[in-house]
Amino acid sequence: MATPRVLLLTGAIDDPRVLSWVPLSLSTEPRAELTGSTWFAWRLLSGNNRELGRSAQLMSSQDDSLADVERAMTAIATATIETRRSASYGTYGWIARDLRGPIALSGKAFARLRDAENAAAQFIEAMPLATVATLAGAPALSISDAAVDLRLGTVRA
Fold first, then answer.
1. Are 6 and 43 in contact, with CB atoms under 8 Å apart?
2. Of 125, 130, 104, nearest to 4 (Cα)?
């Protein structure tokens, strides 16, 4: 089995995709205040590059994003998983929490509750085993400025 990877991401605060980071089924979570002109976040990818989950918040720095990854890796074993249903769309999502608040959430909405529960279980299993897919000393990957070849572990600008 291929190793799951955490991919660090960054983008401009004024990018409209910022608003869609948290899926609609989980949009009742409070959002952290971002400072500066750039946001940072992470995604957990399976060995076949399928998104298993993502950071529950956008962060203002790469260091904050890396600290959040470390927190998720250690806290997921004792986290509480909640599934939620979007009243307006009828889809399901999941969110993982510890005593300090949200750790991670589903990156997509699911038509069935059991699919959301299965996705959460896959995230719980994969997160502690993940490696961080970034180059030492390199900035996080910009969604718009870089392409990532995860099979080779390299970044193309």
1. yes
2. 130
DSSP state of 129: G
> How far, in Å, are 32, 64, 65, 125, 132 from residue 3 at the CA level?
30, 24, 20, 12, 10
The one-character DSSP state at 32 is P
Domain that holds residue 120: 5-156
The number of domains in the chain is 1
Residue 2 neighbours by CB distance under 10 Å: 11
Q: What is the pTM of this model?
A: 0.78
What CATH number has the domain bearing residue 88? 2.30.29.80
pLDDT digits (tens, 9 = 90+) for 96-130: 999 988 999 998 889 999 999 999 999 999 999 99
55: how many CB neighbours lie within 10 A of its CB?
Answer: 27
